[in-house]
Structure formats: C-alpha cells, structure tokens
Amino acid sequence: MPQLPMSRSTLRAPRLPSVARLALAVCLASGFATSAFAAETTRYLALVDGGKQAGQQVVTRADDGTTTVDFIFKDNGRGPELKETYTLAKDGTYQTYQVQGTSTFGAKVDESFRREGDKAVWKSLSDSGEATVSGPGLYAPLGGTPAGFSVVLNALAKRSDGKLPLLPNGSLSARKIDEAEVTRDGKTEKVQLLAMTGQGFTPNFAWATTGAEPRLFAFIYPGYLQLIEEGWQGNAAALETRQKAAEGKLLVDLRQKLGHRFSGTTLLRDVRVFDSEKAQLGEATDVIVADGKIVSVGKAAASLKYDRSVDGGGRVLMPGLFDMHGHLSRWDGGLNIAAGVTTVRDMGNDNATLQQMIGEIKAGTLLSPNVVPAGFIEGESNFSARNGFVIKDIAGAKSAVDWYAANGYPQVKIYNSFPKELLRETAAYAHSKGLRVSGHVPAFMRAQDVVDQGYDEVQHINQLLLNFFVDDKTDTRTLQRFYLVADKAADLDLDSKPVQDFIATLAKKQIAIDPTLATFEFLHQRDGELSPIVEGIADHLPPDVQRGRRSAEMNIPDDATAARYNKSYAKAVEFVGRAYKAGVPLLAGTDEVPGFTLQHELALYVRAGLTPSQALQVATWNAAKVARVLDDRGSVTAGKRADLILIDGDPTRDIADIRKVSLVLQGDTAYYPSEVYDALGVKPFAAPAKVAAAK
C-alpha cells in the first residue's frame, strides 16, 4: 500500500492519507469492466473545496501489462509530482517498480524495486535492502502514488486468507464497511468502501470497484480531498457523506473500547501536583475528582467515601496538555490522548467537518481531545489553501469573521494569500467582535507589518524569521517560505538591532508566537536520517512508520547545504529561546503527527533555554490563558474540569518523562495510554496506573 506522498497540514508519519494527482481523460466507456490484458487508461481528478480541481492522476496500462502513473497535486503552494512505472506478478504484487519526481516540499524521489524468483531488492534515497521471499510479498513504496491502492486491492483479492504480506515487513488486511451505487449518464454501478489496516497508526479507506479484479475508484479524505475517477465526480459528495458515517461507526466502537467511565468520586492518592501557574512541583498530596470536576486538592480525610482510588505512588499529576496548533481529523484522538493531550486548538479545518467533530466530542462518541477552534480565512489565488473561508474582498472577510464569532470561535487565522490591503480593517473588525487575530504572514508582507496592523499572534518559526529576508516583492506562497529560511537563517545575527528590535516589539505588545519548532525539523533532515521527532522513540513505533520517517522533505543536495540548513535550524531554536526570555508569550503547537510532536516541541524549548517546568507551563497554564479557557482547565484547581494526566516519572527534572503517561482523565472518562497505544500498534511508554474500586 502506498505511503502517500503528501499529507494534510504536513502530517508526515506515516504519511497520513493525502492526496492525489490529476488525470487526463478516461476510457470509461465500458463502465468498471476491466480486461486482464487490454490496454487502458484510467483518469482521476483530485478535488478540493467542494469541487475545485487541484490535481490529477493518469493510470495507463499497456498491452504488455506495464503500468505508468502520472500524478500531480498542488495545494497551498506545494505538492508532489510523481511518475510511477510498474509490472505485476501473477499474484498481483509488484514484479518491478519505479517512482521518480519530487515530494511535497521539493525533495527528490527516486525509488525502485524488483523481484527475481525468491529474491527481492529495493532502493530509495533513504534506504535500501534485499530479502529472500517465498510466496507473495507486496513492496510498500515510500513515495508512491494513490494508484498503489489498486495494486493492493487486486493483490488482496487473490488471497484466500485475506492477509497480504508486505515488504520490507508487515502485512495488510482489508474489510468492506459499506457499499454504494454511483451513477453517470444514466448508468449505475456498485462500489465498495474498504478499511485497510496494517500500515501506520490507523486504517486507510478507499472506495473500490467490485468484481474479481477490484481497483481504486475513489480516495476521499473527508473535509479535504476527493480523488475520483473522471466522469464520476458528481458522486463524490455522496460518497464522502457515506464514508464519514461508516468511519463514525468504527470510531464510536474505538471510544467505547478504550474509554472507561469514572462516574461518582475518584481519589487520586499520593500524587505530586504540578502547579502550572507557578511552574513548580508540590509535595505529595491527594486530589479528589467527582463527576468530571476537580473537587479538592489536599490530603483527603480518612472518612472520605469514594467509588475508586488511583495509587499515585508519588507520581506527578498535571493538567492535561494543550496542543496549540493542530489540524484535527477524527482519527487523531488516540495519539493525542495517549500523549496526555486533552485540548487541541484547531488552526484551520473544513468548517463543516470540524463542527461535526465538536458535536461528536460533546456527545461522547469520539475519542478526541476537546477542541478550541480558530477560524481560517484565506484570500483567493492560484496558491490558496482551501480550508475555512476563501475571500476576495472586505465584505467576504467580514462575513467570515461574523460566522466564526457566531459559532463561538475565540480567534481567526489569516493565511498566505490574504489580500494585504484588507488586513488592517479585517483585524480591527475581528477585534470589534471580540476575536483574537493570528496567522501566517500574507505574501508580500513581513511579520513586522502584520504585528503593526493588528495581529495578536504569529504562527510558525519560518514566518517569524522571514521578517529579515523578504521584501514587498517576495512571494512567500511558494516553497520560498521554507528555502529562504533554511538558506539564510544561518547567517542571521540574533544580536543585531533589527532582530533585537523585533523581539522587543513582540514582547512590548505581547504578541504570542506559535513556532512549531518540531515540525520544522524537516528543514534540515536528510534522506536516510530518522526524523528528530521520533529519534528517541523509534523502537516504540510500527516498522513501516520508522521507515517512513527516514524520508527527507527538503532538497538537500550535498553536505555543505546540509551543514548550512543545520545551522539555520539551530538559529531558529535559539530565536525562540531569546524571545521567551525577553517576555514574548510562547505557545506549544505541532502541525505534525499528533502527540509525539508536542512532546518533542517541549524538549526543543528546553534546548532553547527554558527549564522543563517552564516548558510544561507553556503547554498548560499559558496555553489555557491564550485559548481563553483558563477558567475551565489548564491547572489542577478545585472547580475546574478534570482534564488530568498522571506521569510515571518527573518531567520537571527530565522533560523526556512527559512521554510516560500512565493515566489520562478527560472529564468523567479515563484512558490508559498503554491500552490506546496497543490499539495503534505502538509499544507503550508506561504501565497503566493502578486503580482500585472502593472497598
């Protein structure tokens, strides 16, 4: 099954379902019927924002059985361009395979595989290997296209046991979870929705044709992408609706399996409470929780009646962590909750999808952190990201602000193509409605400009550092927004007057920064190197995830470039530390694989000069304050929501201990991260907390 080449909001490990390439024209005159030998071309359209074409995939099979795939997808000024060629063995697996092109951020892709008898050999820019294989084994490309789904489905159909061995490791299985009829020009066909498991942390979903030789009909990432055979795109919305319902049933089951109801009174005995307001750890005490709320913090009376007790054993009890830069999907909950993340600020999503998720969370049917939404507002251009509202004029901008204000959003997020001439008025209007204003720096502007025109917060370290490298002619909607920083930050003098003046302005105006440092580790990661996000925990992750995290995102052609990019990244980390020490509000966010990235983000803050306790304060008290939910969560305080995590270690001394979460309380529901990680194929980091029923 393909490790898809681009993921939503750069979620990279395993490349979460992503994206597809445009197609050119499709021989669909015979409906879904296929011949095992006849030449044919199948074309797919990649649609975003309710039907806007953003890519295509053209799959051509020659008379000799050789298949070529041309794939391109461009969204938000970036995306992969790939050309794939392969032949298949009789069992439907790859006999030969090759893919070349560029990845989402411009890194080169060059990968090949061949099988001769029992010998399998593969080579990519990040790994190589060979194996002796008896029987079927499907190579799982690192940089493949969505056309690989067709190979997977066909090979699985030939397996009587329903399991397909994968190379270099693992196995894949699929089950039908829904079916639907699709129509075109009065013609009706049946398609099936399959859930495939065995790669990554969560299932992948694809709509397939039926029959003895099924192939990909549509790949849908709800709220983001619809990749569907050309000519049948009129069915995409209905298929997405059905898929969301089918996924919803699986997610309800998952939450029921992993969530444990803690009704009544719970005594958390002998715990050391982290005071997030003062950033200090207290002596051992007791915390009483009743029906999802914190009742008291202090030694419990011997006469206390309770329904259950948790043996803290001197472990650290903290408020649940905040991820202040997520782009949530319904499947992110497990990784977040297992890492102790009980609140995520969503920084841009399909509005209908996010509203549905918030409803499911409130109803108790979705395993997920609670959500603080930020309203996404983008300007219309060829580079536009198609989340939230895409506007052309001030009336559209104000209408977007009105919608977000009416739906309880505490802030808006401005994006790359937003018209700079509308920024000041839009920010003032949002403020008049009580909303905070944050975002990327729109093209042809600097961070200093957006601060002057009303921003309360700036997202991403590259957007901050670009302040010193761009002018009013630099188009940062392209990959320049990454490569300029990677190339030039190495020579940036952080003691210079421009840098010091900028930091002083941020501090004086209390402009928050959301640097997502961990995400930007990709600026210097080379092919074959393990992503620093998972470098210390690789042995806990599924083998295919480990392998996928060794692929580079940036084009780093030589050692000299690598050294320069490493130096630039070190400057980025140092900039954040200096800003924090100067009094600039710092927020911990990810914009990457959930859970693990936040943990690494906090470690980077310690590297930048914060103490571990200060880093924990950033992800709890400070986050709750900026998110405007401090009266409800963010500290272990009587009267607040019981969003709590128990740590089997002391992260105030060693920030790496933040991974050792043994219990998560989210209101009146408890989760054992060890159980959650087991369900996701991850080796747990801590044993479950000991919970005893009242005697």
Could you explain the architecture of this structure?
The strands form three sheets. A 15-stranded mixed sheet has the order 8-7-6-5-4-3-2-1-15-14-13-12-11-10-9, with helices on both faces. Strand 31 (about 660-665) and strand 32 (about 670) form a beta hairpin. Helix 9 packs across helix 12 (about 560-580). It contains 15 helices and 33 strands. Residues about 1-35 have low confidence and may be disordered. The chain has about 700 residues and is of the alpha/beta class. About 25% of the residues lie in helices and about 30% in strands. The radius of gyration is 25 Å and the shape is globular.
Provide key terms for this protein.
695 residues, 10-stranded mixed sheet
The poorly predicted ranges are 1-37
Envelope shape: globular
Distance between the termini: 51 Å
Let me know the average pLDDT. Answer: 93
Question: Roughly what percent helix?
Answer: 10-25%
* Share of residues in strands: 25-35%
The main sheet orders its strands as 8-7-6-5-4-3-2-1-15-14-13-12-11-10-9
- Total helices: the number is 15
Rg, alpha carbons: 25 Å
Number of strands: 33
Structural class: alpha/beta
Largest sheet: 15 strands, mixed
